[in-house]
């Protein structure tokens, strides 16, 4: 039985005008559809 977790969203600031968003954990195979 697979137990699903709620993904968390975090922001990594790259510089003043750019950021990188990290969403984890994702279900297996879901990252390929984004």
What does this structure look like?
- There is one protein chain.
- This protein has strands at 8-13, 19-24.
- The protein has 34 residues and is mainly beta.
- It has one domain (1-34).
- The chain has a two-stranded antiparallel ribbon.
- A hairpin with a 5-residue loop joins strand 1 and strand 2 (19-24).
- It is elongated, with a radius of gyration of 13 Å.
Topology summary:
Blueprint: E1 8-13, E2 19-24
Number of continuous helical runs: 0
What class do helices, strands and sheet pairing give?
mainly beta
Query: How helical, in percent, are the residues?
Result: under 10%
Please trace the helix and strand order, writing H or E for each element: EE
Query: What is the CA-atom radius of gyration, in angstroms?
Result: 13 Å
User: How much beta, percentage-wise?
Assistant: 35-45%
Mean pLDDT: 82
Terminal-residue CA separation: 25 Å
How many domains make up the coordinates? Answer: 1
Tell me the quaternary state: single chain
Q: What summary fits the major beta sheet?
A: 2 strands, antiparallel
**Overall 3D geometry?**
elongated
Stretches with pLDDT under 50, minimum 5 residues: none
Strand element count: 2
Strand line-up of the largest beta sheet: 1-2
